[in-house]
Design a protein that fits this description.
The protein is 73% helix and 0% strand. With 211 residues, it is mainly α. It starts with a helix and ends in an 11-residue tail after the last helix.
Length: 211
Amino acid sequence: MKHRNVYLLFALLGLFLFLGMLLSILHYGDSLPVDHTVSRLVSSWRVKSWNRWVIALTHLNGMKESLFFSALLLLLFLYRKWYDDAKFYLLAFAGSIVLFAVVKSFVTRARPQMQVIDVSGYAFPSGHSTMSISMAMALYFIFVRKIDSASGRILLLAVMLAWPLMIGASRIYLNVHWFSDVLGGFGLGLFWVMLLKLCCHGQKEEFPSTR
């Protein structure tokens, strides 16, 4: 029950973050003050020699790359006969794609101007951010139950939090998304995975312990 309450809390936090960004965008449109403040700051920090590395990083969580990586993971889960884990990951990954695609089609927000790379489609929410946090949190829940040491669990959590943060930052750095697009994607992905966790995944001990 304790863990279910934590999942519920994070599901609500994700939902509030997503709805907060969505309502702000619907009210302010492309003139959301925080977006332009962050965009100006990032523009002043951008270093041309870094661009190719950031582009390579952001492409690691592109649609094709994410599909390929997810297919390999599902094959591994099926080979190891982790059928519940395979179902959970597939729902987390596929559901995140459906969710952000549907929201994009309704909100139809334009992307920022002066992009570092040419990206088409609507901006809100960031698909990379939604997918990255959904994949990372799903993998955390799957593998944390298979790690015995507290330090291993903490390291796993750190990696699974760092990855979507780097992907989200890369989208802002490349000026293909507004700051609120990334936050909205994080909120949507977090809400979806926590909702799945509440509904259909095992309830073994799944949080790092210092004991």
